[in-house]
Amino acid sequence: MNHHWRPLIIVPLLLCLPFFAPAAISQEEIPQDIQDLNSIIAVVNDDIIVRSELDSRVSQLAAELKQRGTRLPPRSVLERQVLERLIVTKLQLEAAKQAGITVSDDILAMAVNNIAQENGMSIEQFRRAIETQGLSFQGFREEIRNQITISRLHNQQVAARIVVTDQELKAFMDKVGTSSERAEFHLLHILIATPEGASPQEISTAQHKAQRLITQLQDGADFREIALAESDGRQALEGGDLGWRKSTQLPSLFANILGEMERGDISEPIRNSSGFHIIKLEDYTGGERHIITQTHARHVLIRTDEVTSDEDARTRLEQLKQRIEGGDDFATLARSHSHDKGSAIKGGDLGWLNPGDTVPAFDEQMNQLPLNSISQPFQSQFGWHIVEVLERRERDNTQDVMRAKARGTIRERKAAEESELYLRRLRDEAYVEIRLATQ
User: Where in the chain is the domain with CATH 1.10.4030.10?
Assistant: First the structure.
């Protein structure tokens, strides 16, 4: 588990003095270490970042990197990377506040409980595990609140505005259909960023830096260490590790060259509006087929209301089931009695159903029925049903799955690009004064 912990805020000594203390204490009388911990190292609009906040995050990151066996870059490099992330985080939280985005205590509690469960712990065990590491559980909760807040901000400002057209989907599927059969890729990434509207000199400088880094990598330098020290990408603190990604989830500028690369290969600089990218292909896996079981079924639905109770609905369906088993035609009875008008006119026929096409209660009953048998009456959110399974078949659903993934991937790509632009605008339009000397 890798979370960003809320730093320990050191309370100035002045605030801890009793009310009968001398009326005036000069700055020189406050111990120097307390002054240093609370010195302002960055101003971000109306907010600030203090030395203790940065030190806490840098110490946490250094411990995580050591645990992963990654050689640490100079302290100044870590401070530069962490400070920039702190700045962007504060800008996003400020934007969320202005947009009226809040996270209730109930939602926060649910999120923290889910994290505890994912780690196989009760909430009390999880609390103790956090505090055993010398960390504040309340601080951890607030970090989770911030993450949810930022996620909602991006959903509101970016994701909700993205549209995938049929033309985009077709173009994407055409490209996927002729691409390599490799299904997943594990990638490492370095970004040498260029500002929006970069000058030719800025572009040339970034390109030369990217080429210099590639030379170092080809000479045996560790990619993760170079990414940590030099990358401007959002995964720089993770050593540029993008993790495993489906071929359909790759940025298009990467997908076009990965078919030519083998494990361990490092790309030449790849340019887009964000700057120059360098990728390393760590590993890949082959493709896979998606086989599903489809069910051809028909049903009768009786809805409940002020006149028809649950018991009435169940009794009516039991009577219909007896009539069908006694020789009456299912389709005829469905046309006369079913409240599902869409299927009633077709004799209750629902056609071929994929897993998940119906609500869970209906799926569960249908999937356990033998062929040509009728269920007992059961309830779903729509009312009471009886269902008959007519046929089952296996179907290669790969294309449908790929289309669904393709649509999601196009949305993700657009969201990633728009998120980068959104964060860049936040940063460019903000007042940021850095008082920390970084090299």
Answer: 13-159
CB 152 within 8 A of CB 257: no
- For the stretch 353-374, pLDDT in tens is 998 899 999 999 999 999 999 9
In the chain, CATH 3.10.50.40 covers: 178-288+411-434, 291-395
Residue that is written with structure tokens 């985080």 in the block? 89
Q: What fold is seen in the domain 13-159?
A: Triger factor/SurA peptide-binding fold (1.10.4030)
- Interatomic CA distance for residues 113 and 391, integer angstroms: 42
How far apart CA 260 and CA 347 sit, in angstroms, is: 55
Q: Which residue shows structure tokens 């079913």?
A: 338
State the CATH architecture for 291-395. Roll (3.10)
Q: How many residues does the chain have?
A: 439
Packing angle between helix 398-429 and helix 75-98, nearest 10 degrees?
100
Within 8 A by CB and 6+ apart from 36, the residues are 51
On whether the 178-288+411-434 domain is CATH 3.40.50.720, my answer is no
Q: Taking the complete model, does pTM exceed 0.90, yes or no?
A: no
- For 84-106, the pLDDT digits (tens) are 999 999 999 999 999 999 999 99
- Give dist(CA 326, CA 319) in Å, integer: 10
- Residue of 253, 275, 126, 129 whose CA lies nearest to 194: 275
